[in-house]
Amino acid sequence: MNDHSERPLVxxxxxxxxxxxxxxxxxxxxxxxxDVYKGDRxxxxxxxxxxxxxxxxxxxxxxxxxxxxxxxxxxxxxERDSDAIADFRNREIGFVFQFHHLLPEFTARENVMMPGxxxxxxxxEVEDRAEHLLEMxxxxxRLEHQPGELSGGEQQRVAIAxxxxxxxxxxxxxxxxxxxxxxxxxGIHAMLSDLNEETGVTIVVVTxxxxxxxxxxxxxxxxxxxxxxxxPGDEQVGDRIPESQLYREPTNPRQLRADSNExxxxxxxxxx
Length: 272
Ligand SMILES: Nc1ncnc2c1ncn2[C@@H]1O[C@H](COP(=O)(O)OP(=O)(O)OP(=O)(O)O)[C@@H](O)[C@H]1O
Ligand SMILES: [Mg+2]
Prior knowledge:
Helix content is about 35%, strand content about 25%. By secondary structure, it is α/β, with parallel strands linked by helices. It has one domain: Rossmann fold (3-Layer(aba) Sandwich). The strands form 2 sheets. A 6-stranded mixed sheet has the order 6-7-8-3-9-10, with helices on both faces. Helix 6 (about 180-200) links the parallel strand 7 (about 170-175) and strand 8. The protein starts with 9 loop residues before the first strand and ends with a helix. Magnesium ion binds near residues 52, 53 and 174.
């Protein structure tokens, strides 16, 4: 796993992202380095406000770096013009967010068909592909249901099927399972793993829940603007981050312990 001969699918070098808010500068990501290889399944954790969504947005070309470089297959994606970036994003990247924005008046099948219709593909082909994807996520019995007639977990699976429609090489999910119970969330993550095995799609998930992250082979933490392994020295992380980061302890590891969520919750209530 450590020994990669091929070039990473995504190479992030020296990424800094700052926001200016009411004349104050806020540095969210600072000289961050991360490589993502084809077929990787990566979970990124970190406390609220650490910059997880920001990193995912930059990785997905939805937001530009302040400085630094993002290469996709060796190509500096942000050096293209905005039309070319948008086109690249539509073809290569699938996003699923916690609030998945399914269109309420359309059926599951029609929601999944949407990217194909927008790309003006032939309707028959689009219908077949949508049906196939919904089968893949276990919803072959729900093709004609509208979002309001589906459970939360089922809606998330429709959103995943839709994100996969254009056969993206990179699937990014942000707190996808945040509003689901742990068991349903675990089921969704297991399904992502199956999709990764079946289609080879590279997956990066952002989650608050270490128990869900546990299902991904590579577990990282966003800490103080940079990326660290969830477990210092974790061999699975390999050469995806600089060696100097590999053994660093997260600043606030307690916040991320799988078994301590309940304690943290109790403490928060006691101090309230
Ligand atoms: N457009 C923006 N303008 C100014 N500040 C921003 C902007 N977007 C994000 N921030 C700030 O950057 C920091 C990181 O935000 P981000 O959404 O990436 O955190 P996160 O790790 O995803 O947190 P959460 O777990 O709560 O979703 C936050 O402090 C936020 O207030
Ligand atoms: Mg976020």
